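TA notes, week 10

Several of you asked for a full example with nothing omitted. So below is the full record: structure tokens for the whole chain, then the designed sequence directly under it. When grading your own attempts, check the secondary structure regions first.
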């Protein structure tokens, strides 16, 4: 006999997750948006500058940037990501009762939308949004490769670290959805190779030639000229990041490494709490009809993870990087599920007691964090 919605804990978990996310947003409204606000102020006024695309787009519509725009823009992107992901999940897995546990383990994960809400206004979510778009649109022609290249270039212009954060996932999605679905030709291989080389060149240009060409004091004055309330100088505390060379980022990261490594057991525990999800992903890979496809999916998971290992050694916002790594794994699950399978994969059990307990644990976790866990 089927359980009613009240008797089904997975439906209750969805309601609790929605409440937690709403609470996170209300709490976020009380916080000062340091880095997200500066990203809306910096544009290409002084030439090609790294991390300036969002501000340049905003400058097309207004010359004075209010603080509330961080929450409106960040909240809108968050809602768009939520809506498109729900559509993606519906198309990939469906929304019948048996898929509720899988949906809860993804949508309710503290790595995913909860952490994007906690980091509202930061640039990470744009990479996730781009990957979801590429999982939704048709992948039948070279136009798909060009779209993936365009989105990747925009991400690098938003922040060059996207080359390691979400661009590898976008490349993996492009390979799984486009290249594995048809014969390789000199044209499509050449376009893909040129795209990779071009994105690498764009990253190098942003990293090494996108520094601010004026003294920091003059830069701060310009930022004040774009603020709706120039008296809020406290929001300009992190203007120095536009002057920080790569060597300084390494130095800061390794100086914090001993204390940040203390959080590794916590991240490991958070990953373990998602065990039913990872087991399901392994089953999806094992069920693929073509052994070559299985190997390519595994290689993609390794490649994406190596990108995050480099980030781990370079920039110290570990809680964000671990969260985005987990999101990339979840997105690659959707990509792998589109490949031909030799057998059906059993859904995550909704009646298993341990699975239900893990579902409740991740549901009640509000987020992971930005630099340190919680």
């Amino acid at each position: 006999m089927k359980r009613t919605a009240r008797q089904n804990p997975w439906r209750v978990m969805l309601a609790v997750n929605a409440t937690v996310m709403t609470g996170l947003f209300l709490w976020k409204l009380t916080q000062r948006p340091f880095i997200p606000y500066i990203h809306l102020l910096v544009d290409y006024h002084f030439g090609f500058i790294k991390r300036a695309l969002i501000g340049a787009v905003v400058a097309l519509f207004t010359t004075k940037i209010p603080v509330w725009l961080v929450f409106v823009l960040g909240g809108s992107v968050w809602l768009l990501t939520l809506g498109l992901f729900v559509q993606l999940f519906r198309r990939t897995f469906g929304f019948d009762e048996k898929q509720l546990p899988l949906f809860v383990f993804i949508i309710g994960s503290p790595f995913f939308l909860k952490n994007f809400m906690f980091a509202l206004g930061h640039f990470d979510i744009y990479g996730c949004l781009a990957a979801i778009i590429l999982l939704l649109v048709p992948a039948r022609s070279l136009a798909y490769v060009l779209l993936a290249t365009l989105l990747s270039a925009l991400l690098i212009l938003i922040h060059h670290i996207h080359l390691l954060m979400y661009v590898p996932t976008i490349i993996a999605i492009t390979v799984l959805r486009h290249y594995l679905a048809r014969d390789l030709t000199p044209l499509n291989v050449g376009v893909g190779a040129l795209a990779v080389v071009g994105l690498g060149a764009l990253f190098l240009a942003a990293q090494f030639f996108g520094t601010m060409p004026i003294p920091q004091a003059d830069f701060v004055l310009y930022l004040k000229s774009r603020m709706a309330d120039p008296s809020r100088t406290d929001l300009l505390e992190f203007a120095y990041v536009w002057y920080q060379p790569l060597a300084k980022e390494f130095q800061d990261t390794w100086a914090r490494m001993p204390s940040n490594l203390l959080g590794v057991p916590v991240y490991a525990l958070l990953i373990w709490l998602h065990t039913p999800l990872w087991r399901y992903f392994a089953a999806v890979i094992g069920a693929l009809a073509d052994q070559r496809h299985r190997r390519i999916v595994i290689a993609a998971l390794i490649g994406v993870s190596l990108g995050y290992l480099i980030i781990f050694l370079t920039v110290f916002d570990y809680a964000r990087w671990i969260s985005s790594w987990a999101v990339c794994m979840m997105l690659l699950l959707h990509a792998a599920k589109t490949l031909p399978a030799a057998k059906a994969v059993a859904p995550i059990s909704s009646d298993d007691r341990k699975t239900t307990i893990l579902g409740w644990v991740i549901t009640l976790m509000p987020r992971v964090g930005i630099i340190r866990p919680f």
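The two ends are 41 Å apart (CA to CA). Use that as a sanity check on your answer.
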